[in-house]
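Batch job 17 of 40 flagged for manual review because the log was empty.
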Amino acid sequence: MHQLTLAGKTYRSRLLVGTGKYKDFAETRAAIDASGAEIVTVAVRRVNIGQDASQPSLLDAIPPSQFTILPNTAGCYTADDAVRTLRLARELLDGHPLCKLEVLGDPTNLFPNMPETLKAAETLVKDGFQVMVYCADDPIQCKMLEDIGCVAVMPLASLIGSGMGIVNPWNLRLIIDNAQVPIIVDAGVGTASDATIAMELGCDGVLMNTAIAHAKDPVLMASAMKKGIEAGREAFLAGRMARKYYSADPSSPTTGLIGS
C-alpha cells in the first residue's frame, strides 16, 4: 500500500528527508531512523561526502549500503553550476545516477529559476542522470519537465524553510492529475498535518528537511511525519466521503427508535 517506485526501484516509505540543519551527524541519523525514510538527500556544495578526505563524511553516518543517497544542487543559481555539481556527485558516489536538481532564482525566497531548471534537466537527462526536480507549482512547466524525461517532478508546497504548508492545493491537483511520473511535494511542509494533506491530495511522496531539523525535538517530529505520511496515503486510497453542506445524514440507524 505504501510502496513508492522511483527510477525502477521500490521503496517502502513515501517520506524523503534532507540532512542539513541538524546539530550533528548523530542527530541527523537518529531523526532519519525515526522517519523511516529510505531516500536521503544531501547538498553536495554544503556537506562532505568525500570531497574533503580530512573531514568527517556524512556517508559514515548514513552509508549508501543502508540508504539511497540523493545528491542535490542546493545553492546553485545557474544550469551550468547545477550540472557541474551533479557530475561531481556522480563521481563521488561511484556512478550513482539518481539526483535531485534545484536551480534557485533568488537567495532570499529560494524560489526556483524555471528557465535554468528546464535547461539543466535537459542536459542531465541526456547525460544519463535520473533526475528528480524541484520546481514551481506550475502545471505546464511540471509537464514540460516530465516530457524532458525527469523520473519525478517535485513542486513546492510553499517556500523552502517557510513551514507554511500547502498554499495552493488546486495547482497540486492539476499537476497530479496530469502526471505519468511520481509527484513529490518538496519544500514548505511545517508539521505532520501538512504532510498528511499532501498525501490526501494524491501526491506520491513528500520531501522535507527544515520541518524536522528545526523542530524542538527533531527525532519526535520525524516520527510524527512518518505517521502523517502513512495516514494521508491510506486516506487517499480509502476515498473520503463527499462534503455535504447542511445535509442531515445520521450515522446511527433511525428505525426502531423508542416511540416510533
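Reviewer: the log was empty due to a logging misconfiguration, but the result itself is present. The longest helix spans residues 218-238. Unflagging and moving on to job 18.
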